[in-house]
Known about the structure:
By secondary structure, this protein is α/β, with parallel strands linked by helices. The protein has helices spanning about 1-15, 45-55, 85-95, 160-175, 195-200, 210-215; strands at about 30-40, 60-65, 85, 100-110, 110-120, 125-135, 135-140, 145-150. It is built from six helices and eight strands, in the order H-E-H-E-E-H-E-E-E-E-E-H-H-H.
Amino acid sequence: MKLFIRILILYLFISCHTVSRISTTKNNHNKIILLQPIDYDSGQNLLPLSKELKDFFHANVSIAKPITIPKNYRYQNDLYDETYSADSLIQLLSKLINGSVVEVIGITQKNIYVPKDYEFHNNNKERKFSYANNIFGLGFISGNACIISDARLVSSDTALYLNRMRKVILHEVGHNLGLPHCSNDSCIMSESNGNIVSLNQTGGDYCENCKRRLH
């Protein structure tokens, strides 16, 4: 009896500390995907994006009230004064996760970056420095939040713009669901989707191999 009670307590402890996630194979009717605008003025674009996500994941999608990026997230260089730390924004968004909200997708019009070291040789001398590597979006493997920037995705063609945003969102959410980059160029998880030309041409879904990994 004591052993049974210990096992039950352990099970309840693990269950309470298991992160709930959206699924691509099951109904997510009791789960909420939160779209969080951050310094994002094109609110009318969030409604069609929320519908796309609702149809794709069969989950409830809620649009939060806009918030402002903290000033200390800005890249500390005068040349990049409108570029903000993507991983800092993800940490901020992760705090919005609760019992019902299982995925937070931040959307901003500001440039976002991840630090990147650059190395070059000049007169036989090696020099290294860091710079802001601007990206479309960022999501961590098995995370619960991602950040998307439309700064380099904008287009006068609304349908093209929304299609780009949808692909980048599904790519970053795919990372959150545990998917790495895919070698299939037609898959939405392809690393080549960091290039705008490839993004325009790639498919709009996970390939069969990626889908199997999500089961």
